[in-house]
Amino acid sequence: MSDYTFRFSKSEKRLVAVLIIIPMVLLFIGVYGGLMQTLFRAGIIQSDPFVGGDYYKGLTFHGVLNAIVFTTFFAVAFGNAIIPYSLKKNLNATIAWVAGILMLVGSVVAAIVILIGEATVLYTFYPPLKAHPLFYIGLTLLVVGSWVASANWVPMYLQWRKENEGKKTPLAVVGMFTTFIVWFIATLAVAVEILFMLLPWSLGWIDEINVMLARTLFWFFGHPLVYFWLLPAYVMYYVFMPKMAGGKLYSDMAGRLVFMMFIVFSVPVGTHHQYMDPAISSQWKLLHGIFTFAVALPSLITAFTLAASLEYAGRLKGSKGLFGWMGKLPYFKKENWFFAYMITGLIIFIFGGIGGIINASYQMNTVVHNTAWVPGHFHLTVAGPVMLAFLGGSLYLVGQFLNKEVRLKAWAMLSPYVYTIGLLIMSYGLKIGGLMGMPRRTNTGASYANPDSVLYQADWIPYIDLTVIGGSIMFVGIVMYIISFFTTVFSKSKGSEEDAVVTFPISEPLHDEPATWLRNFKPYIIIAIILIVLSYTPVIYDVLQATYGGSPPFSPDSPVPLR
Amino acid sequence: MDNSEKLALGLSGFLLVLFFGAIMYAAVAKDIDVPTCITDMEPFVTDTLFQTGPDTYELQMVARMWAFQPSTVRLPVGSTVDLYVTSQDIMHGFKVEEHNVNLMAIPGAINYMRVTFNKPGEFMYACHEFCGAAHHTMAGRFIIEERLDEPEIIGGTL
To answer: What pLDDT, on the 0 to 100 scale, is given for residue B157?
Structure first.
């Protein structure tokens, strides 16, 4: 079943390349913003030397471009590549292009609005801070485009099932559908928030909105969003990595079980971001906490299955002893550069996972909520395993879909290691600073880290300095990647376009159980809906009961409401 | 599913149950909880501090762009404070250094937590939710003193 090739149409290939290359430019703007933020926070700069504007504008485009735009594009591009490949069916290219254009237009509009300073509301866009209506419209187009793109895969899959009765759906397809089922359920809430609350309010059609309700709808979306980021990385971990390591996937059933568990438990967990919020009873927060622990289980299973797959690969190469296999993996093989992105991400995710469980631990969240610990944590997840898997995947996809040999492979292979070293240093600084009380989303350079300010906190400074050092190393890692990426894009292709075929490293399973109870999405979607209704009805009821008045819009520049 | 998988799954489940047990122990036996839904409190727009018992106080705090009212709270060691926080304009956040108090201040809602100050010193509270251009200047402090005749609150910016 492995190493076969598939012929994509010219139009499909061009689309996948566009959906990877344009977001890569936006990603680089966002990465630049990230570097600037560490400099702002340390007081090294007071305004952005190239883009202009303050820390908070930079923070907005860093968050929106990296965490929302880049990730969504990659998930769609990867789905457009791996689903046709796995099902051996071509896409409906017209629909796929319409989806891609919606996403591109939306993202570029949102990016421009942010860069001209009309949407300094950060990537959570909490009201009553108001952005320009085009910001909300841009995000809506991005989301709607991703819906259209994923809807395009459904008839292909149904057709495949009809033709392959009794056969297991390829694991990659299960993973990508899981990704987009979670995404669709989650984005319904943010669609309600944007279309019925934020957009009409920013246009002036309604005067006031309920801030707590908007915030609660945001987090209904906001936590499953992290699984939307994580799941395509999981697909690559399960489907590609064992093969790249020279082994097999330890258990096919474990992979299927993990994906179904994500469908069930991804959504009824959002209130764990609101542990410190008013107007929600603590018992409902605890319920969301319990579900959050449940959604940790598939990640623990994944940790085992992937480690077991890598151990199997190591033992095939003749490793001895309990841990000998760890020395036999292809960490620094230029030709196997993709493996470097996978393994560094997995190592980072050990810390990311532990941090996630700490954050989810109900009253322990009091210690870390909204401190610098939180960005310290999520850089170890979304900017760790997710980002690295997506970067590795992007480079692989452009190579395959543009029919080009990846250039500067040594740079591409070393980039994730450089990035990882920087990331661990930066996150350590943020996390310890957070435990000392350093707030997140705060331009510390202008107050807490400024020796001339009455708010100066001398004991935070070493940790702020660590974020500058770590952030700079991360930036170097990304620059190495970007050079390799664009050198590949602009290099000569391998031969005539007609002969070009696409291949992916698909791992064979070591244990392949029938797992008939894991072959249908429907029961799991139904359980998910039941859990969502049970967990969110009391939360929404509390919010509506315990809040009063509505909020007019505010600009970030003035305490006086805009109307 | 082979034996090692079953073992891994069992251990993972056990670990999560153990963590959850610790949370429940802290909540039930130690009475450490997260903020809950407050419905029996009239909305307030100004800050007030009043004594409700020998060592107990009620403090109503208002967060606004870009200051906490009050910005300084002076109390004797051993004070227990029923702290109510709301926002007058947009979202803010409130966390007291070295104490387990962490509250979102949200317009249209009242947040509550109880805190006891057992040692003397100055404890800063910094706004931890982005609230606009001068967010990083929004902070205040509790000053806890051994001997104090008159607890007081001082408003305005720090």
So the answer is: 47
Give Cβ neighbours of residue A345 (< 8 Å, ≥ 6 apart): A233, A237, A384, A385, A386, A387, A388, A389, A416
Contact of B87 with B62, CB cutoff 8 Å: yes
C-alpha B139/C-alpha A456 separation (Å) is: 11
- A441-to-A17, A55, A262, A449, A508 alpha-carbon distances in Å: 34, 9, 29, 14, 44
The two tokens of residue A417 are 């290691």
Q: Which residues pair with B143 in a beta bridge?
A: B74, B122
CATH code at B104?
A: 2.60.40.420
Domain residue ranges in chain A: 8-167
**35-94 in B: which are within 8 Å (CB) of A?**
35-39, 43, 64-66, 86, 89-91, 93
pLDDT, average across residues A427-451: 96
Asked if B83 and B15 sit in the same domain, the reply is no
Q: Do the domain assignments include residue B81?
A: yes
Both B70 and B144 in one domain: the answer is yes
What pLDDT does residue A1 have? 44
Whether residue B77 lies inside any domain: the answer is yes
Cβ–Cβ contact A547 with B under 8 A: yes
For residue B101, what are the domain limits?
48-154
* Judgement on whether residues B72 and B4 belong to the same structural domain of the protein: no
Whether residue B139 sits in one domain with residue B77:
yes
CB atoms B112 and A558 under 8 Å: no
Co-location of B4 and B80 in the same domain: no
Spatial CB neighbours of A473, under 8 Å, sequence gap ≥ 6: A418, A419, A421, A422, A425, A426
Q: Is the pLDDT assigned to residue A24 strictly greater than 60?
A: yes
Catalytic-residue membership of A223? yes
CATH no. for A8-167:
1.20.120
State whether residue A330 is helix, strand or coil: coil
**Displacement of CA A533 from its chain's centroid (Å):** 25
Is the Cβ of A279 closer than 8 Å to some Cβ of chain B? yes
| Nearest of A246, A153, A250 to residue A513 by alpha carbon | A250
Cross-chain Cβ contact B89/A559 below 8 Å: yes
pLDDT tens digits, one per residue of A100-135: 999 999 999 999 999 999 999 999 999 999 999 999
Q: What's phi and psi for B142, nearest 5 deg?
A: -95, 130
- Looking at the fold, whether B16 and B63 belong to one and the same domain comes out as no
Residue B79 covered by a domain = yes
Q: Are residues B57 and B134 in the same domain?
A: yes
B139-145 and B72-76 beta bridge pairing = parallel
Chain B residues in contact with A214 (beta carbon < 8 A): none
A530 touches chain B (CB under 8 A): no
A 78-137 residues with CB < 8 A to B: 122, 126-129
What number is the average pLDDT over the span A38-53?
A: 93
Number of domains within chain B? 2
pLDDT at residue A254, rounded to an integer: 95
Q: Give yes or no for A289 touching B (CB within 8 A).
A: yes
* Residues A125 and A180 sit within 8 Å (Cβ to Cβ): no
Give yes or no for B129 touching A (CB within 8 A).
yes
Which residue of the set A132, A256, A272, A440 is catalytic? A440
